[in-house]
Amino acid sequence: MGNVSDISAAKRRQDPVLNCGAAVSTKTMEEFLRTSQESSKFWEKIVYPAMFAFIVLALYGFFLIYSLTSDMRRVAMSFDPEMGQHMIVMSNSVDALTKDISTMTAQVKQMNANIQNISTKMAALDNLSPMLGELQTMDSSLGDMNTSVTGLDRSVYGLDNSVRDMKWDTGSMRHDMRKMGKPLGFFNKFMP
After folding, report:
1. What is the pLDDT of residues 141-155, one digit of tens each?
2. How far apart are CA 36 and CA 26, in angstroms?
3. From CA 113, how far away is CA 146, in angstroms rounded?
4. Could you tell me which of 170, 181, 176 has the C-alpha nearest to residue 75?
């Protein structure tokens, strides 16, 4: 029996047991501590920076949402509540301008017809020999003038079409602004 007690005494000297209520050897405890330190280093290297990055991204997201809501508030405040009335007045003015340009187009066409009539009468005067040279010069000038008036007629007609398009676009814009007023007023109620 002395042999067994010598072996267990030698084993106790090599692998001392900690006195913590459980039979855990010092070697096992050291391995546990080393493993837990490696694990904590892993957390320090990977998880903590990831948590920090997540917090930074969350703060940036909050900033973006705050900026968006403040910008929407500024847009809602910048709309004039009387804009619909102003659009009606502008639409009526464009309508009156369209009518005036149509009248001007008709008058330019009449002027073109009168100039062509004068040109025809001047051609009949070509038989008068003393004034023949002067009348030919005058006739060519009237032909140039007729060409210019025809070009002016086309330009006024194009302007008439452009103003008519402006009138339609203004009416559409007035309609769209009326539709946008209520939602913007709704957003304005949420802003401080």
Report:
1. 878 888 888 888 888
2. 15
3. 9
4. 181
CA distance 70 to 67: 5
The neighbouring-strand residues paired with 25 are: 17
Cα-Cα-Cα-Cα torsion 92, 94, 96, 99, nearest 10 degrees, comes to: -140
d(CA 185, CA 152): 48
Domain boundaries, the chain: 2-72, 82-190
Cα(11)–Cα(4) distance, integer angstroms: 11
Cα dihedral sign for 77, 79, 83, 84? negative
Residue-wise pLDDT for 93-138, tens only, equals: 888 888 888 898 989 889 888 888 888 877 766 566 666 677 677 8
Is residue 185 within 8 Å of 64, Cβ to Cβ? no
| Cα→Cα distances 142→106, 107, 124, 128, Å | 20, 18, 14, 18
pLDDT digits (tens, 9 = 90+) for 28-73: 888 888 888 888 887 788 888 889 999 999 999 999 999 999 998 8
Whole-model pTM: value is 0.30
